[in-house]
Amino acid sequence: MEKQRRNTKTKKLVMDVFRHEAGALCHADIVQRLEGKIDRVTVYRILQGFFDEGIIHRISAENGKTYYALCHECSAGHHADNHAHFYCMGCKTVSCLEATGQLPQLPQGYSASESSWFISGYCPNCRAV
Amino acid sequence: MEKQRRNTKTKKLVMDVFRHEAGALCHADIVQRLEGKIDRVTVYRILQGFFDEGIIHRISAENGKTYYALCHECSAGHHADNHAHFYCMGCKTVSCLEATGQLPQLPQGYSASESSWFISGYCPNCRAV
DNA sequence: TTATTACTGCAACGCTATTGCAATATTGAA
DNA sequence: TTCAATATTGCAATAGCGTTGCAGTAATAA
Q1: Mean pLDDT of all residues in chain B?
Q2: pLDDT confidence band for A34 (50 / 70 / 90)
Q3: Does residue A58 sit within a domain?
Q4: Per mean pLDDT, which range of A1-5, A11-15, A118-122 is the poorest?
Q5: Across the interface, do A112 and B105 touch by the CB < 8 Å criterion?
Q6: Range of A40's domain?
Q7: Residues A72-97: pLDDT tens digits?
Q8: DSSP notation for B33-86
Q9: Between B23 and which of A26, A73, B81, B95 could a Cys-Cys bridge form, CB atoms 3.0 to 4.6 Å apart?
Q10: pTM of the predicted structure, to 2 decimals
Q11: What is the pLDDT of residues B50-106, one digit of tens each?
């Protein structure tokens, strides 16, 4: 059966970090913003929990790190984050783009259950420099 | 100035592995197929070298691992691997798709230098099971 | 054949993420 | 409010992927 979930102080702290942040965050970002308040392992577990609940979605960046961002159209068990993600090589941040592209035509016989776009480049701020 | 490159036995071994394989391979795959013949660090360095030469391209998978596959339209220093990559959740293999989709429209002010698609699902073989 | 230096293997290290376990805190029910 | 059940936390240890330093080896050009 489903495991019950509890509303704890640490979860609220992590959620607050997400709410005060526009872009996506990686584990280290969150630990840093909560300096000393939560153990790093707990952060990993909370992120996993939020992901399972459909509250945040996961983004695998080219640098090997995993980023997380609040979901808008996801529900528990089903992540509909088919939008594109952008990595700015200037400020080294990951953000979610509203625009969705068009999936490549899959060859005969293939079935897709999830897809993701990842674009690297410069955001308006960093491009200007 | 450019560093000279040498044609060694180990490089040939790694290249042979790629040539006998249809899909993309991760570091561990290659080490396993060359069981005991090459040190794991050497494999990392050869992969890096091939990448720099434009012989193979890099794919960051959702599982956090990096995959490599032979290039077709790349040249040293410039990787044109704008095609989509497919991860089969059945046989757990990564492959390159010929088809190219359409990139999402970037918001005003953004500039893209690289992009990648990643699609998860089932390949024809695994779908049938 | 010989000198140059790219390459290899080994050991050690760094970083991201996971697991086990005892102590703690949340929750629903008495 | 009190209490028991159990989800959650923190700490220590561990696993996995990738990198760096260095001494010995081997490919290449002269």
Answers
A1: 87
A2: very high
A3: yes
A4: A1-5
A5: no
A6: 9-128
A7: 766 655 656 667 899 998 888 999 88
A8: HTTTTS-HHHHHHHHHHHHHHTSEEEEE-TTS-EEEEE-SS-BTTB----SEEE
A9: B95
A10: 0.86
A11: 999 999 999 988 888 899 999 876 665 665 666 788 989 888 899 988 766 677 788
Query: Is A3 domain-assigned?
Result: no
Tokens matching residue B27: 């570091």
Q: Of B64, B120, B124, which is closest to A114 when you measure between CB atoms?
A: B120
Question: CA B115 to CA B82: how far, in whole Å?
Answer: 6
Element (H, E) at B128: helix B124-128
Q: State the smallest CA–CA distance between residue A68 and chain B in angstroms.
A: 13
Domain count, chain A: 1
Rg (CA), chain A: 16
Residue A2 lies in a domain: no
CATH number at residue A110: 1.10.10.10
- φ/ψ region of A7 (left if φ > 0, alpha if ψ in -120 to 50, else beta) reads beta
Chain B residues with a Cβ under 8 Å from any Cβ in chain A: 60-64, 66, 83-84, 86, 89, 97-124, 127
